[in-house]
Write a sequence for this structure.
């Protein structure tokens, strides 16, 4: 573990520098702003990259080339799209509830950014690290559904209304499985603090450590989390062929962009949580007894591990999304209440038994 | 065949004439409903193929083409007429055949004939405030009568539906509201990603469940039948491609066959073979797109792209030989426009094994997909009787067990010389309508495989001498296009331009099948069901 580059040294150095320069309170204030800015920039850049990656990967699934005009291999395509979306008019909808209509997209994106802040990106890079980290993640990430319901209700359109109702039903249901799957890991780890959960996987990742219950929890979490992100085959709230664009049908310009960003980042967040909780987060692959192997693994920087694992989970999500047709609303709810949730409950029990004995 | 005609002639005082092996009965307007009911009850004429409105000059009339589902080949023609007044009336037959509902609305729209006892006498294609009846010969096309509205108009959910009923010998005009006051109505279309064109469905919802569907047409109505009356026959050919643009080649083939039959023109063997191969390629392309868009409507965009990719190969073959891709513009009266490209045979031969390989992949990727099966199984039952009554021909009807393939019933071109199966499925569910298209692709490949090596040498075009003038009379030709029976009716007075042209749109009846099947299903199923019938809107809005 000693060889691993820890970015904590860097952050501590910045902290010390600022304190020497301005003194405690001001340094803290400046750090808040710096961290906020860094998070927002990371959020935006990641979203741009994810949009590009999805378009490219989906193109390969579909035997196409994908974006290839803006920049080499079209890498600046999503930047160009972002500029376009920034320049678009914000259309004022007749007889909409304007206050809720405008605020909805912010709520969605705030929920997403707050969750984003709690992710351990690399050794020493984590903004929020409570002792109830997992609880915080679950709670704050479900803030988005309020925004979605608001958007659907305030747009004064029947499509958005149906989309919002579907979304409410779906997110509330799948929140359960999400929570129960993560709870299985919490039982195994004995803590809710994200940094400690990662630390505990230093000898072996939880998916290997936790035997069968951890594997089951991993799969159920991926399914439920995928449903949480409103992406196919669970994209009912915005089912393109039925509801045109579901709850964000009436939005334009950057407000639509916020929903779009939040959707991509939620995909990233779900994948990152899966990677952190089950695949060790930024922790390299360590196998007990294989000392030299572990040492080699340590040379790979921690953020590479984190983004690699997250990328793997995102790839799985994209694979599913571009292969399966959409579920119907009754099938969607059946899947959750009759299949996933019982499995999760039994799995939690199994995990508890496994931990006790 | 003789018996019902004599019986009707005796009972209802009908005049019998024979026209090219087809019997025509001319009835007085009071007798038409009773005679039709008698034919349906006693002789099993359960399929109303087509209703053609006519303006004979001094009278307005309707021509009914009837057929039996048990013996589909011979057609029986009923004719009736009514005096040309401000309010011409006929008795409706929509209690006998469901397909008459839309047909009669169309006749009303274009000729102004009101149908007594029809439940819904709204105009079907034109606006409700349109002045005049366009297909009448005395129609005034002055644009000032029907100005283009320059102001934004609101869509109304609630509409009043007029109808006329007879009671105690008196006509009573009534109107009713289309929906109840407190129903939740959502407009699907005219601009909607899943509407395959500009169809407008007004759907009454109860939560996610569809209560009733009211289709609205006419958003891209171009008045093709009216245009035909001003064009010469070779010019009309170009319009046929633009009806059902996905089976344009087949529609054009139908019009050519009709003209050739009327002229008694001999078509070179080579052209007949090429036309058949082109028709089948078109059918494959259309089914691939139909399959893909159905998958897309279920949320699987990748399948759509796969369908488009395979279809692209066919488009390339078309482009090389005909110059056009979607609109090949290839068949002409007397043959085909130009000879096939030297590469044609080679490329078609390459395409057949490629397509077979891809079909395996499509089945593996989508047909066997548990979510797809879960969506399609047990949904959208259309019974055989209902399919016949509605007139849902083509794959939509064959999935319900109704044998209606014109290629088998009345073989045209070289379909009598090739060995292929008419794919029939019994259950009438969405999955049957889905899988029948894939099975038909395989049959089309079989047909092409048998023909591609047998294209005879020789001329490809027997050009008619001078201006094409069809001898006076009525001509009728039906073919199997990718969506069902496409029919051409031409009435000629011996001029270079036809007196009346009517195309039977197989898609119009498919929409009424959707209207029949959709209630009690969910919104997601409504979209999927629409795609499973695979209608094309320009075919409806001629």
């Amino acid at each position: 573990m000693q060889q691993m580059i820890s970015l904590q040294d860097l952050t501590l150095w910045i902290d010390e520098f600022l304190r020497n320069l301005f003194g405690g309170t001001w340094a803290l204030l400046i750090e808040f702003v710096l961290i906020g800015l860094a998070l927002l920039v990371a959020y935006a850049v990641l979203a741009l990259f994810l949009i590009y990656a999805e378009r490219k990967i989906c193109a390969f699934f579909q035997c196409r080339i994908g974006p290839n005009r803006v920049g080499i291999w079209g890498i600046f395509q999503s930047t160009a799209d972002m500029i376009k979306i920034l320049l678009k008019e914000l259309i004022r909808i007749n007889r909409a509830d304007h206050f809720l209509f405008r605020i909805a997209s912010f709520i969605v994106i705030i929920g997403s950014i707050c969750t984003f802040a709690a992710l351990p990106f690399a050794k020493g890079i984590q903004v929020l690290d409570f002792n109830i980290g997992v609880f915080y993640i679950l709670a704050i990430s479900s803030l988005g559904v309020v925004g979605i319901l608001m958007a659907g209700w305030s747009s004064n359109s029947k499509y958005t209304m149906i989309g919002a109702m579907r979304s409410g039903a779906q997110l509330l249901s799948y929140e359960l499985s999400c929570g129960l799957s993560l709870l299985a890991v919490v039982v195994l780890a004995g803590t809710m603090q994200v940094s400690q959960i990662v630390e505990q996987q230093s000898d072996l990742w939880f998916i290997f450590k936790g035997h069968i219950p951890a594997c089951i929890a991993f799969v159920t979490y991926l399914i439920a989390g995928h449903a949480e992100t409103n992406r196919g085959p669970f994209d009912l709230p915005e089912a393109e062929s039925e509801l045109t664009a579901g709850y964000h049908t009436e939005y334009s310009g950057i407000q639509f962009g916020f929903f779009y960003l939040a959707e991509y980042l939620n995909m990233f967040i779900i994948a990152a949580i899966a990677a952190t909780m089950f695949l060790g987060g930024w922790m390299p692959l360590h196998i007990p007894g294989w000392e030299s192997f572990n040492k080699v693994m340590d040379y790979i920087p921690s953020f590479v591990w984190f983004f690699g694992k997250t990328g793997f989970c995102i790839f799985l999500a994209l694979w599913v999304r571009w292969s399966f047709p959409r579920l119907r609303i009754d099938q969607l709810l059946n899947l959750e209440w009759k299949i996933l949730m019982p499995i999760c409950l039994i799995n939690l029990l199994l995990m508890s038994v496994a931990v006790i004995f | 065949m003789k018996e019902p005609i004599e019986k009707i002639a005796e009972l209802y005082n009908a005049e019998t004439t024979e026209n090219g092996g087809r019997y025509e009965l001319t009835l007085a307007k009071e007798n038409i409903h009773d005679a039709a009911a008698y034919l349906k009850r006693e002789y099993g004429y359960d399929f109303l193929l087509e209703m053609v409105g006519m303006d004979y000059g001094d009278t307005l009339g309707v021509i009914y083409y009837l057929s039996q589902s048990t013996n589909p080949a011979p057609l029986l023609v009923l004719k009736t007429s009514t005096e040309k007044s401000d309010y011409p009336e006929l008795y409706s037959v929509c209690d006998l055949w469901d397909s008459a509902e839309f047909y009669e609305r169309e006749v009303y729209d274009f000729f102004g004939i009101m149908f007594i006892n029809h439940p819904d006498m709204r105009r079907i294609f034109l606006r409700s405030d349109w002045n005049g009846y366009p297909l009448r010969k005395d129609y005034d096309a002055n644009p000032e009568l029907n100005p283009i509205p320059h102001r934004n108009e609101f869509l109304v959910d609630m509409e009043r539906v007029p109808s006329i009923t007879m009671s105690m010998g008196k006509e009573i005009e009534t109107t009713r509201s289309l929906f109840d006051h407190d129903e939740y109505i959502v407009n699907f279309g005219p601009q909607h990603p899943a509407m395959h064109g500009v169809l407008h469905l007004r759907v009454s919802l109860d939560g996610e469940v569809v209560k009733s569907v009211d289709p609205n047409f006419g958003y891209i109505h171009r008045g093709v039948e009216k245009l035909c009356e001003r064009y010469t026959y070779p010019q009309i050919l170009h319009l046929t491609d633009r009806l059902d643009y996905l089976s344009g080649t087949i529609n054009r083939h139908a019009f050519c066959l009709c003209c050739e039959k009327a002229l008694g023109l001999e078509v070179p063997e080579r052209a007949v073979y090429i036309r058949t191969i082109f028709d089948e390629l078109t059918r494959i392309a259309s089914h691939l797109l139909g399959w893909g868009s159905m998958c897309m409507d279920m949320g699987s965009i990748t399948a759509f792209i796969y369908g488009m990719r395979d279809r692209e190969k066919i488009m390339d073959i078309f482009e090389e030989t005909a110059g056009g891709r979607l609109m090949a513009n290839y068949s002409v009266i007397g043959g085909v426009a130009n000879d096939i490209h030297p590469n044609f045979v080679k490329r078609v031969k390459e395409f057949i094994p490629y397509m077979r390989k891809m079909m395996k992949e499509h089945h593996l990727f989508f047909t066997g997909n548990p979510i797809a099966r879960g969506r399609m199984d047990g949904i959208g039952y259309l019974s055989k009787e209902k399919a016949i009554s509605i007139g849902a021909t083509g794959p939509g009807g064959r999935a319900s067990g109704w044998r209606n393939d014109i290629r088998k019933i009345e073989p045209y071109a070289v379909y009598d010389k090739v060995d292929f199966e008419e794919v029939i499925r019994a259950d009438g569910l969405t999955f049957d309508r889905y899988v029948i298209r894939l099975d038909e692709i395989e049959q089309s490949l079989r047909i092409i495989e048998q023909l591609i090596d047998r294209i005879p040498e020789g001329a490809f075009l027997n050009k008619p001498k001078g201006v094409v003038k069809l001898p006076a009379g009525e001509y009728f030709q039906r073919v199997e296009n990718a969506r069902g029976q496409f029919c051409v009716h031409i009435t000629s007075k011996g001029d270079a331009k036809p007196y009346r042209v009517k195309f039977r749109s197989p898609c119009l009846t498919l929409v009424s099948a959707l209207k029949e099947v959709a209630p009690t299903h969910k919104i997601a199923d409504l979209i999927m069901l629409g795609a499973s019938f695979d209608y094309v809107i320009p075919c409806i809005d001629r």
About this structure: The mean pLDDT of chain A is 83. The two ends of chain A are 30 Å apart (CA to CA). The interface with chain B takes residues 58, 61-64, 158-159, 162, 166, 232-233, 235-236, 239-244, 322-331 of chain A (CB under 8 Å). Chain A has 15 helices and no strands.
